[in-house]
Write a structure and sequence with these properties.
The chain has 480 residues and is of the alpha/beta class. The chain has helices at residues 15-27, 30-38, 58-69, 86-94, 116-127, 144-158, 170-185, 189-196, 205-216, 231-234, 237-254, 270-280, 293-301, 309-312, 331-334, 355-360, 393-396, 403-423, 436-449, 459-464; strands spanning 49-53, 73-77, 108-109, 137-140, 199-202, 224-226, 262-266, 285-289, 305-306, 318-321, 341-345, 365-370, 373-377, 383-387, 431-432. It has an 8-stranded mixed β-sheet with strand order 9-8-7-10-11-14-13-12, covered by helices on one side. A 7-stranded parallel β-sheet has the order 3-2-1-4-5-6-15, sandwiched between helices. The structure holds 1,4-dihydronicotinamide adenine dinucleotide (NAI).
Length: 480
């Protein structure tokens, strides 16, 4: 705690560097800056206590400071152990008007290279406010903050945290341990926190999937807005963001030439499409794997070879998972890969690649090349290079998506926070999407910033295609 702000970051003295990059990012985030202007002196988030769990990058710093400028109090943690940019975290703690000695910003609990124990500690800190209360809003990416609250409530009701079983992943055992400690200290902590929460806004595909599962089971404790499925989020961030940041991660991690190499992209959803474009742009030869015939056909029509992973291991120089599913690259794949094949994941969680199986492999040797790059040498002498220990490599090996695309995503986040915070009584414990007019508003701002000029409908034309001159221009079922 310094100047009344509790925080845990790597090095506060990096704040000045962070502030410089935040200043540059602000210019590249016209959506967030427009929202700051639109709500100047209105403070729609006055009284909001937002606990945020989202990669603590420069772009997120601009998001946090936008929430603050709209009147919110904020506490933050990263949603991944490798994704924090330490200078951004420091700058957010110091704040635009503070100093290292006298920080005036936001409590942040995030540093690059957390252990899993530390990660879940930061999650609890982010959700625990110093006055003993909790947040009244959650801003989540991947659903870990929401999970902690829901599991906490569930185990408080049961009066006991179940013992982990042998087969549980290491991380789950840590979650259980975190909750066991909090249950021992205060048996009503999470129930109290959950009661105060008006809603959650969720950033990504994987977190949204978890929310729909909770809602379907009737277990969702508060309303949720699915930000991911705003068109200006998933069709932009997941695709064009990945197109930029995937090769950034591979380059910074390995500096290997991608042209001419064979790259396998597992999954051809929004992220997979961006990933394939990213590597094709470098001249790589792309193979796509899919389980969904529609996405597989799209890949084929886009000119990619659609194959199953087992059949292409002898050719693959680079294998990237983008599925949001588990056990996609397994040990029986990795042991057959080419020498120094690069293996990485860009989906939300690290279970797409069987890292546990790799660690257990008899006689395997791990050589750490540099942070977030490991060479795993099999007993026969051949090796593979695994990026970011199987966690999302665009944020682990590089700095994630650039500002302009995140401005789209985060504008939707801010709009969703304002909507749920101010109108929570109008929402049930379900998962909602933002109205299309707001999506179009976000697109309009960013198009303008790029110098694009929009054609205006005549009244006659609007009637002919049965839309309003001012939008929305498409029916809900339109797919873009
Ligand atoms: P999506 O649902 O559009 O695409 C996933 C695709 O993977 C689907 O087409 C599905 O059919 C396919 N798939 C599922 N299991 C498969 C398997 N075993 N083999 C091959 N293909 C399989 O989801 P989206 O939006 O593309 O997101 C994917 C993941 O990336 C999610 O975990 C999401 O949270 C994450 N994400 C990561 C970002 C980053 O910056 N690293 C940015 C945005 C999303």
């Amino acid at each position: 705690t310094r100047n009344g702000i509790d925080f845990a970051v790597a090095d506060l003295s990096q704040a000045e560097f962070g502030r410089k990059e935040i200043r540059l990012a602000e210019h590249e985030m016209p959506g967030l800056m427009a929202l700051r202007r639109e709500y100047a002196e209105v403070y729609p988030l006055k009284g909001a206590r937002i606990s945020g769990s989202l990669h603590m990058t420069v772009q997120t710093a601009v998001l946090i400071e936008t929430l603050v400028s709209l009147g919110a109090e904020v506490r933050w943690a990263s949603c991944n152990i490798f994704s924090t940019q330490d200078h951004a975290a420091a700058a957010v703690v110091v704040g635009p008007h503070g100093t290292v000695e006298e920080p005036k910003g936001v409590p942040v609990f995030a540093w690059k290279g957390e252990t899993l124990e530390e990660y879940w500690w930061t999650a609890e800190q982010m959700l625990t406010w110093p006055d003993g209360g909790g947040p009244n809003m959650i801003l989540d990416d991947g659903g870990d903050a929401t999970l902690l609250v829901h599991k906490g409530v569930q185990y408080e009701k049961a009066g006991v945290v179940p013992a982990a079983s042998e087969d549980d992943p290491e991380e789950w055992q840590i979650v259980l341990e975190t909750l066991r400690k909090s249950l021992a200290a205060d048996s009503g902590k999470w129930t109290k926190i959950a009661e105060g929460i008006r809603g959650v806004t969720e950033e990504t595909t994987t977190g949204v999937m978890r929310l729909y599962q909770l809602a379907a089971a009737g277990e969702l404790l508060f309303p949720a807005i699915n930000v991911n499925d705003a068109v200006t989020k998933s069709k932009f961030d997941n695709r064009y963001g990945i197109r930029h940041s995937l090769i950034d991660g591979i380059n910074r991690g390995t500096d290997v030439l991608m042209g001419g190499k064979v790259a396998v992209i597992c999954g051809y959803g929004d992220v997979g499409k961006g990933a394939a474009e990213s590597l094709r742009g470098q001249g790589a030869r792309i193979i796509v794997t899919e389980i969904d015939p529609i996405c597989a056909l799209q890949a084929a029509m886009d000119g990619y070879d659609v194959q199953v992973l087992e059949d292409v291991l002898d050719k693959a120089d680079i294998v990237i998972t983008t599925t949001g599913n588990k056990d996609v690259v397994r040990i029986e794949h990795m042991e057959r890969m080419k020498h120094q094949a690069i293996v990485g994941n860009i989906g939300h969680f690290d279970n797409e690649i069987d890292m546990a199986g790799l660690q257990r492999y008899p006689g395997i040797q791990r050589i750490n090349i540099k942070p977030q790059v490991d060479e795993w040498v099999f007993p026969d002498g051949h090796s593979i290079l695994v990026l970011s220990e199987g966690r999302l490599l665009n944020l682990g090996n590089a700095t994630g998506h650039p500002s302009f695309v995140m401005s789209n995503s985060f504008s939707n986040q801010v709009i969703a926070q304002v909507e749920l915070f101010t109108k929570y009584q109008e929402y049930d414990k379900e998962v909602y999407r933002l109205p299309k007019v707001l999506d179009e508003k976000v697109a309009r701002i960013h198009l303008e910033a790029l110098g694009g000029k929009l054609t205006k409908l005549t009244k006659d034309q609007a009637e002919y295609i049965d839309v309003d001159v001012e939008g929305p221009y498409k029916p809900e079922h339109y797919r873009y």
